[in-house]
Design brief:
- By secondary structure, the chain is mainly alpha-helical.
- It has one domain (2-101).
- The chain has helices at 18-27, 42-58, 64-74, 81-101, and strands spanning 2-5, 13-16.
- Helix 1 (18-27) crosses helix 3 (64-74) and helix 2 packs antiparallel against helix 3 (64-74).
- The longest helix has 21 residues, at 81-101.
């Protein structure tokens, strides 16, 4: 379980479970989300919300894990641009740790 800061003053935070990070990976929710500037703002958060809503509509009934991610994290009332930025950073760290613990075999 992880905790991300959701606002600048540090008074709000969101609990992130490993299952949430696995769902982000499964649906590649962060792929092409951030523009070339690398800035995460409210428009980026809104774009993520629209992408997730579209996924929920196309996979009706088969996505309880995605629905849990929405309720717990993405549509959390505390989630703002800073929270999304911290979630993306956490996801990158989590992804790197998984690669270190589960190295892929390559055959040449």
């Amino acid at each position: 379980m992880h905790k991300i800061q959701a606002n600048l003053s540090g008074t709000r935070s969101i609990i992130i479970k490993d299952t949430h990070l696995e769902v982000i990976e499964k649906y590649a929710l962060f792929k092409d989300l951030i523009g070339s500037t690398g800035i995460v703002d409210e428009d980026t958060l809104n774009r993520l919300k629209l992408n997730v809503r579209s996924l929920l509509e196309t996979e009706q009934g088969n996505n309880n894990d995605l629905l849990d991610l929405c309720l717990d994290v993405i549509y959390n009332t505390d989630m703002k641009a800073l929270g999304l930025n911290n979630l993306i950073k956490l996801y990158k760290v989590w992804e790197n740790e998984r690669e270190k613990t589960n190295p892929q075999e390559t055959t040449i």
